[in-house]
Amino acid sequence: MRSGMSTHPIKDEDEDDTERLLKHYLNLEPNLTALYEYWSSVDPNFKKRAPKFTGVRILKQDAWEALMVNNLCLHYGPLIGHVDAQPYHDFPAPETLTGPGVEAHLRELGFGYRASYIAKTAKMVAKEKPEGWLQNLSNVDHSPDQKMPPGGRDGYRKAHEELLQLQGVGPKVADCVCLMGLGWGESVPVDTHVWQFAQRDYKFGKGKHKSLTKATYDAVGDHFRQLWGIEAGWAHSVLFAADLKTFSERLTSKAKEIKVEEVKVKQEGETTVEVKTVVKQEYLLNGIKDEFEEENTVELIKDFKDSPRNQRAKRRRLG
DNA sequence: GTTAAACCTATTGA
DNA sequence: TCAATAGGTTTAAC
Questions:
Q1: Whole-number pLDDT of residue A310
Q2: Which residue is nearest to nucleotide B7 (CA to C1')?
Q3: By three-state DSSP, how is residue A106 classified?
Q4: Which nucleotide is nearest to A175 (CA to C1')?
Q5: DSSP-derived pairing of the beta strands A79-83 and A86-89
Q6: What's A113's DSSP letter?
Q7: Where in chain A is the domain with CATH 1.10.1670.10?
Q8: Given A52, A60, A172, A314, which residue is catalytic?
């Protein structure tokens, strides 16, 4: 990719558009700092957790691509080219996945019960729905200061509803497509992680909204839309990242280094007191208070004394 | 209207 | 090896 800092105007004319495409796909235009500041100003929980998860952006994917998955490209997508002898394939068009043997083949490829969903959805999009159906569900209005009801703009509600007709597409997947493939910023996909922190930090999971029914699903989305505004789906992604196990290692990685040092030091001494010291340091490093401290305490104790009781305690707290 | 069971495979950690 | 995790949607049953 060209850097865009060329001093040769003549060459700029045939400069490729890779940078422009990347900026668009990675959605680099919006001011992340301003957005984070706004979300932090309206939500103390966001303010507490977001600093460890900066730089989260919502991709501007193709809607059909957002609807489907990865492994498909290798077997159905057209070959784009090679990098270091490694072949790269584009995403297959829905028409490519409408053949009679597709479902069986996808099962062989390990898609499991989703094989039939993919095959049926491809048929619906390619054959049963009118031309441009999916793309026409996109948000095209980018004017600032739009009003948005808690349920979202009409276009978002329409897109969400239409997507639910597809086989294997429920509210969560529909919202993922709305958010990343169709440009509806207020879309909040509620998956298991979002449901976890909705219960832990936003008082869901009791009373009227005890379990994640459709009514609860909508209520969670409405709450976050009301709280975070028209880019609620973006704010949601920041906290989603914070809830993932793979990413949450960020919260303890530095402390683990210190923990190792502490273990060496205490080699000849008693354990309990010194473990607590480590926890304190981790707590300071993280800058995250209350319940996090407790979780880390349990985990660290588990590391040193791996008793079944402590394992149960950890599972219970981490839920 | 809500809940439970069934659907599928792959990866990771104890 | 087994449980947890990736993990929502559909269908049947209450």
A1: 29
A2: A113
A3: helix
A4: C8
A5: antiparallel
A6: T
A7: 17-57+188-256
A8: A172
